Amino acid sequence: MEINRPTSTTTRLDDTFRTETKPRQIVKTTFSIPIELHRRLKYYALTRDVAMNDLVCEWIEQNTGDIPA
User: Fold this and answer.
1) Angle at 54 (CA atoms; ends 48, 59), nearest 5 degrees
2) Contact partners, residue 36, CB within 8 Å, separation at least 6
3) pLDDT tens sequence across 29-67
4) Is 65 within 8 Å of 57 (Cβ atoms)?
5) Alphabetically, which GO biological process terms does the record hold (predicted)?
6) Residue boundaries of the structural domains of the chain
7) Which residues make Cβ contacts (< 8 Å) with residue 33, sequence separation at least 6?
8) Model pTM greater than 0.70?
9) Shortest CA distance to 33 belongs to which of 49, 55, 13?
């Protein structure tokens, strides 16, 4: 006879409110920009403690939101 370990209320609540989401598919992209723009982007990201990739993704989302994918 196997005795199951009781689950805590917290565990049951966490399971109740957890939503299953599909992970975003990621595509690696290479593009060329002038070195001065790269430096500015890098400095901007560094001073705001954010990844350059996140800034580029944010810009794309803000500027192409109404275009179907």
Assistant:
1) 100
2) none
3) 999 999 999 999 999 999 999 999 999 999 999 999 888
4) no
5) regulation of DNA-templated transcription
6) 23-69
7) 41
8) no
9) 55
